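Hi everyone,

Forwarding the result from last night's run.
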Amino acid sequence: MRYLFLVLFLFCGTAYGQKYMTEEGRAVFLSDAPLSSFEGESDYLAGLVDLDQNLLDFYLDLNTLKTGIGLRDRHMRENYLETEEFPFAEFTGKLQEIPELEMNQEIPVNAIGKFKIHGVEREIEVSGFLTRVAKDEVQLDATFEILLSDYEIPLPKLVFYELAENQKVTLSANLKETK
């Protein structure tokens, strides 16, 4: 009986603490068009990695994206992302396989889920890495690509605002364990 209690205690101990959150992750998009290449970035990515429930949920207030040029940012928000009506981008999904996280070991992961931006939601696959960087912290690094037309985001007509149809999105977040 004592051994059964010990086994249950150890099992519960390993299952406990598999939920991690952040409100200070980083999101970067790269627009690499033939005549114009630029990045937009935000340090306000919020997210959850719940390994017990196999749930990933990340969202970004698109009004926090900055490209380094204020006028371009305003046009991007008002004319293309239409952030007044669609202020957030969100990914909700599941890992294809729950990883065993070892200290300082970068583990490749793949997730499938729904990405929503500009009022349009589509299923996508996201590849990345999870790394346990401390007893109560994990680092997430992920990359995926989207086509603006898939989300009904128009391309600018003016050459000096050239935007690539294909956007590369990179996420990086240090997530802390929640209790």
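The radius of gyration is 19 Å.

Cheers,
N.
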